[in-house]
From TrEMBL:
Residues 1-18 form the signal peptide. It comes from Runella salmonicolor. This is Xylan alpha-1,2-glucuronidase. Residues 24-132 form the Alpha glucuronidase N-terminal domain. Residues 456-679 form the Glycosyl hydrolase family 67 C-terminal domain. Keywords: Carbohydrate metabolism, Glycosidase, Hydrolase, Polysaccharide degradation, Signal, Xylan degradation.
Length: 701
């Protein structure tokens, strides 16, 4: 077959096949611009790799697959480079340790006409290989490559909330990707693509089961299954963690108690931890949700979170693994403020955790709301390693029917200054360990993967998995850059199209917030399924699972007073932060109702009253969804037809649901403000009762 004919066939095949999204950002479609392809030819004559290490083999094969797709060119491999014009994979274990390059870091540079990818570890070379592919996928020149990159955070982790029965808690992309009923005998080939996708963005850890954990995952039967997964992920540099149920010594071990100070319980965990290591020698460790939302924990026995976490850390002492203990805890107190709970329970324990324990804190104090102030624990725990927990799966952010790009939201939190050690003490610096010189550092994201053919449901939800990984590697990357990379790797390299899509993505989070939770409102979603609006929800199993607990609407105004007048949650922050958010006249409008109960007629910095501004934002959000639709429609000829139709359909649903949120909220709050929808906005075309019925349907049996 001549080269041109081969290229022709390749072009034909890629043109004919619609993109089902299954390849994620590793689609490696042929670069359309022949000149650009040619520009890469001088550097892609061969791949030189001296050892037959499995990770290096994977790096080599990835480069071969990627370059075959992108350039239409089969690349040979050699043991050592004898000429110029190739890619050399180089592991230099004895390289002097430099402050800039960690074990997982890499350098990519050109030398004597070759591209060198060099690292102290095989995994670092694999990351470098993906970086090189990304350079080509995003259309960069290879002529003067000079990249030095090291991860800022050590443990970059996905948390799967996947259950043994194949369901996924808060999963919106089908059922679980883990086929527990098939493992260990059949190992689904999708695990390999999962590993490749994660390695391509530097994710190096995964907890495979729900934090509302079944003890089943610690049985020999399941350990064999988990081992099979760990064996697939290992050469991609990914360690496996298990979420554990604190009551396991009783349920599995038949002990009378799971009290962490009981010697038999401690022995049980020591033995279990040893047993796990027989299956998975490089086991990552335990992830624990304890004494939260009904899960068992050390407090059941009058012990503290530290007692529980330290017991597990002791079991882990002979091994490299760690214990990740979640700080997501809150008691049901109708007169309390959930905002303060995690802080209150953990603050007295600062300094008492074993060095192997990381306390994993959600980005905000409530629960992954579309916009939350940063969790007050960040910056307030100098003697405890705190890890970040973001939610990639969009429980409160449009699930799989709203286009919401989350990098700006993640960054808003990471870039906020805690002022813990003076100006510049950002949340990111707490998390990457630099503020307090922590031995470990962790950024976790609750995964959005599932059995859907495109993994994530909404095609754009893939970008949130991608963005999470990129930010865990380097939180200084901009949302714009990450969006641009993802679009170029996934949808198109054509600049004007890329710009339009990037614009849609960058606007999407503010738009979503506008029609759901403007001005710092929170937690008004449908009960338990968390789908759609239900601001009128006043009764639930717990007061802090209602909506009225959070928005506090009354005849005077709206918002939760967290100043000294009521809950005083603001006091948990440093004085500079208190100053920024504590004064309703100066508090940024995006955070206003998080901290203040503001009268309906109060004039805001926009010149409008609170009520008018609220309506304005709800209405504007809906208009903006219309604009997203128009932009997308204009791109019909420029993106893959299957993806185009898929997104188009979902935008239509988003429009309908945005209107649902708008009408529900303005009609409901209007009953308190007693004020009309301000002109020239048109009042909703339906009544509050009609809207309430929409939600009731979801509770019918
Ligand atoms: O956001 C809430 C979810 C629960 C989840 C919990 C948690 C795993 O609604 O489904 O449980 O947070 O983070 O533990």
């Amino acid at each position: 077959m001549t080269r041109h004919f081969f290229l022709f066939l390749l072009l034909l095949s890629t043109a004919a096949l619609a993109d089902d999204g299954s390849r994620l950002w590793l689609n490696y479609d042929l670069i359309k611009d022949a000149k650009q392809r040619e520009s890469y030819a001088p550097f892609t004559k061969f791949i030189a790799v001296a050892s037959d290490n499995q990770t290096l083999k994977i790096a080599t094969e990835e480069l071969q697959t990627g370059l075959l797709g992108l350039l239409g060119k089969k690349i040979v491999t050699v043991k050592t480079a004898t000429t110029s014009g190739g890619i050399i994979l180089n592991v230099n274990k004895n390289a002097p340790s430099s402050a800039n390059i960690s074990n997982e870091g890499y350098e990519i540079y050109t030398e004597k006409g070759n591209i060198i990818i060099s690292s102290k570890s095989e995994t670092g070379v694999l990351y470098g290989a993906f970086e090189l592919l990304r350079a080509i996928q995003t259309g960069k020149s290879l002529a003067k490559l000079s990249i030095t990159s090291s991860p800022k955070v050590k443990i970059r982790m996905l948390n799967h909330w996947d259950n043994a029965n194949g369901t996924v808690e808060r999963g919106y992309a089908g059922s679980s990707m883990w086929k527990w009923n098939e493992l260990p005998h059949r190992v689904d080939p999708r695990y390999v693509l999962y590993a490749r996708a994660n390695a391509s963005i530097g994710i190096n850890a995964t907890s495979i089961n729900n934090v509302n954990a079944s003890s089943r995952f610690l049985t020999a039967e399941y350990l064999e299954k988990i081992k099979a997964v760990a064996d697939v992920l290992r050469p991609y540099g990914i360690k496996v963690f298990i979420s554990v149920n604190f009551r396991s010594p009783r349920t599995l071990g038949g002990l009378k108690t799971s009290d962490p100070l009981d010697p038999e319980v401690r022995k049980w965990w020591n033995d279990k931890t040893k047993e796990i290591h027989q299956y998975i020698p490089d086991f990552g460790g335990y992830l624990v949700k304890a004494n939260s939302e009904g899960e068992p924990g050390p407090q059941d026995y009058g012990r503290t979170h530290a007692d529980g976490a330290n017991m597990l850390a002791e079991a882990m002492r002979p091994f490299s693994g760690i214990v990740i203990w979640r700080a997501f805890v809150y008691n049901a107190d109708p007169n309390g403020d959930r905002f303060k709970e995690g802080y209150a329970q953990f603050k007295p324990l600062d300094g008492t955790f074993d060095p192997k324990v990381i306390v994993q804190v959600k980005n905000g104090p409530i629960d992954f709301m579309p916009r939350e102030p940063f969790h007050p624990m960040f910056g307030a725990f100098p003697k405890t390693t705190l890890g970040m927990e973001f939610q990639i799966t969009q429980e409160y952010l449009g699930q799989s029917t709203h286009l919401t790009y989350l990098a700006p939201m993640f960054k808003e939190c990471l870039d906020t200054d805690t002022y813990a050690k003076g100006q510049g003490s950002t949340v990111a610096k707490v998390i990457d360990g630099s503020l307090y010189n922590a031995q470990y550092s962790l950024m976790a994201g609750v995964a959005n993967t599932g059995s859907d053919v495109n993994w994530c449901g909404h095609p754009f939800n893939q970008s949130n998995w991608y963005a999470f990984g990129r930010l865990a590697w380097d939180h200084t990357l901009s949302s714009e850059q990450i969006a641009s990379e993802w679009i170029r790797m996934t949808l198109t390299q054509a600049k004007p199209t890329e710009q339009k899509i990037s614009d849609m993505m960058l606007k999407s989070h503010p738009i979503y917030v506008s029609y759901t939770y403007p001005l710092g409102t929170s937690h008004m979603m449908g009960e338990s399924h968390h789908y759609g609006p239900e601001p009128w929800l006043a009764k639930s199993a717990r007061p802090d699972w209602t909506s009225v607990y959070y928005h506090r609407a009354d005849s005077v105004g709206l918002g939760f007073d967290r100043t000294g007048k009521l809950s005083n949650a603001l006091q948990l922050y440093s004085p500079e932060v208190q100053q920024k958010w504590g004064n309703p006249e100066q508090c940024p409008l995006d955070y206003l109702l998080w901290f203040h109960h503001v009268p309906w007629s109060k004039k805001l910095s926009t010149g409008r009253s609170l009520w008018d501004e609220l309506c304005e934002r709800y209405y504007d959000g809906v208009v903006q969804v219309g604009n997203l639709q128009k932009t997308w429609e204009s791109l019909k000829a420029d993106v893959d037809p299957e993806i185009f139709e898929n997104v188009k359909g979902r935008l239509k649903i988003q429009e309908k649901e945005a209107l649902w949120w708008r009408d529900a909220c303005v009609l409901y709050f209007g009953e308190y403000s007693k004020m009309p929808i301000p002109k020239p906005l048109t009042p909703p075309q339906r009544t509050l009762n009609e809207i309430k019925k929409l939600v009731e349907i979801y509770h019918l049996r």
